[in-house]
Structures are given as structure tokens and as C-alpha cells.
Amino acid sequence: QVQLVESGGGLVQAGGSLRLSCVVSGRTFSVWNTGWFRQAPGKEREFVASIWSGGDTAYAGSVKGRFTISRDDAKNAVYLQMNNLKPEDTAVYYCRTVVGGGNMYWGQGTQVTVSS
User: Fold this and answer.
1) In this prediction, what percent of the chain has a pLDDT beyond 90?
2) Range 79-82 contact pairs with CB under 8 angstroms and sequence separation of 24 or more
């Protein structure tokens, strides 16, 4: 079993920055990929960024160059540094991890609100 706890959301003005954290506990040795997704009101949940166990990263086009995903293996944590935030980045941000065997686990989400 794997548990994820996100933190770091909040209210920020456009152009500002936030750093989200996702702490993974449980079967962390079998984590294959950890990523961030977001869901705005009335919209589908969408991919934001992810990082593989080997260190490769991927980003949605809408956040490339503004967001950076990273991890600290000693803390079993994955971070999402978000710079130059825009009102359209407003959403609930979810952390998701995929372990060996393909099982997925989600966190509870953290709200990010960007005011114009």
C-alpha cells in the first residue's frame, strides 16, 4: 500500500510562485513514476508533470518553462515548483504515483488559486 500527502497550495497573485510537496509513504521502493495532475472547476483532470524513477521528466505544454518537478529520495518527496503563475493555473492539484505492477495511488489534493 502507498499513501500520498500533498501540501503547499494556497492563494497567490498572478506572476507569483508556489511549491507543492508530495510525500510518499509505504511501498516507496516500488515507485515507478510520480506525477502531478490538476482539476479546475467544471473541467477534466489533466496531466501537469511527472518524474520517473530514473529521473526523466515530462511536462504539459501549458506549464513547460514555468513549472519544475523534482524529487528528494531521502525524504520520499516529489515537488512541483510553480513560477509565473497565471489565473488559468487555478485548480486542485493532485499527486499520483504508479508502482510496479501498475497500481496507481492518489493524494487528497491541494488547492491552488491564482488571482489576477
Assistant:
1) 84
2) 79/19, 79/20, 79/21, 79/22, 80/19, 80/20, 80/22, 80/36, 80/48, 80/49, 81/17, 81/19, 82/17, 82/18, 82/19, 82/20, 82/112
